[in-house]
Amino acid sequence: MTKPRSGRPIRGRPAGWRFVGVAALLALLPHWRPVLAGTLIGETAAYRIESPSETLMDVARRFDLGYVEVRSVNPDIDPWQPRPGAVVLLPLAHLLPDVPPAPARRSLIIINLGDFRLYWLPAKGEPTSMPIGSAADPYPEPMGEGHIRGKRVNPVWTPPPTVRAEHPDLPLSVGPGPDNPLGAFALDMSWPAYAVHGTNKPDGVGRRVSHGCIRLYPEDIARLFPQVSIGTRVVMVDQPVKLGWIDGELYLEAHPDRDQADEIERNGTFVPHLSAQSTMDTRLWIARLAGDAVDRVDWGLVDDILSSRNGLPVPILKSPDTAAGAEQSPP
């Protein structure tokens, strides 16, 4: 977890952000525990807003988060007029989605629609993650495996038929500049007419608003673009719930599903609910992955995580001593 600091820039962030420590996180999230550095992509953190002019979207962009993920974990904070002094949780820690591993010395892009994140796993170096904007209904993204087939600097945008049907007055093409929705860089994927690109509307990052392409903040695509080679493997998945072993702990991370994400768009929050079938499927998945530790799984906590879906990875195993003294119901 990021250590508390005051009045000093952190990784290029402006002075004045007041980070808060472990005690504040524990008060806000009783099940949260610090995760050892290097075991997840990113680190859960929190800070205190001091300027009355900053919005939650300003906060999201400064810390490379999208709208839905920052709203889902901070439902009680006004997104446009957060109260000075409010403590905002930063959901910066992410389990990797469940995809087949890349061959040795091969880079990989994972696009997970379920948590509005792109994961960049370079052949050399540390993996990183960044928020995405994805397609609104009824424009589904392709699922499965593809690759990067082209790279464009200052791309020209030709409005596709779906966009032209909604906006018939658009020009035949839009060149580079502030009116171009592709931004300054585009990574064309092997699926026809699909790309990872920048945007001239950064407020759409972390939302389902596009006609199919994947949008990144301008600063993220500028950072990613030179690292990606033509032929890089791309895997597109939709996994709002993720699970993984981290240093002897089994972690569960649950994000809003599509309907709940749309509800957050409309209302700023969603009504928690547990689908019997999806809960049972997840419980069976947990039981299989837990293996010999299945008797230590805290099933009540699992239900809380699947209901709240705040996007934070949480350890779900009881300590051996606690599990030994308590009766556990089978999943």
What does this structure look like?
The protein has 331 residues and is of the alpha+beta class. It has three domains: 73 residues, no CATH class; 130 residues, Beta Barrel (L,D-transpeptidase catalytic domain-like), CATH 2.40.440; 84 residues, no CATH class. The protein has nine helices and 16 strands. It has an eight-stranded mixed beta sheet, covered by helices on one side. It has a three-stranded antiparallel beta sheet with strand order 1-2-3, with no helix packed on it. A hairpin with a 5-residue loop joins strand 9 and strand 10. The longest helix is centred in the C-terminal third of the chain and has 15 residues. It is globular.
Question: Which H/E pattern describes the elements?
Answer: EHEHHEEEEEEHEEEEHEEEHHHEH
From the alpha-carbon coordinates, what is the Rg to the nearest angstrom? 20 Å
**How far apart, in Å, are the first and last alpha carbons?**
32 Å
Main-sheet strand order equals: 6-5-4-13-8-9-10-12
Shape estimate: globular
At the first level of CATH, the class of the largest domain is Mainly Beta
Quickly count the domains.
3
Helical segment tally? 9
CATH architecture descriptor name of the largest domain: Beta Barrel
Structural class: alpha+beta
Helix content: 10-25%
Quick synopsis:
Helix content is 22%, strand content 21%.
Task: Give the tags.
331 residues, globular, 9 helices, alpha+beta, three-stranded antiparallel sheet, 16 strands, disordered N terminus, L,D-transpeptidase catalytic domain-like
Fold blueprint:
Blueprint: E1 18-19, H1 22-28, E2 45-48, H2 56-62, H3 67-73, E3 87-90, E4 108-112, E5 117-121, E6 128-131, E7 134-135, E8 144-153, H4 161-166, E9 185-189, E10 195-197, E11 208-210, E12 214-215, H5 218-224, E13 233-237, E14 241-246, E15 249-254, H6 258-267, H7 276-290, H8 299-308, E16 314-315, H9 320-324
Parallel strand pairs: 4-13, 7-11, 10-12
Antiparallel strand pairs: 1-2, 2-3, 4-5, 5-6, 8-9, 8-13, 9-10, 14-15, 15-16
Active site: 197, 213
Protein name: L,D-transpeptidase ErfK/SrfK
Family: Belongs to the YkuD family.
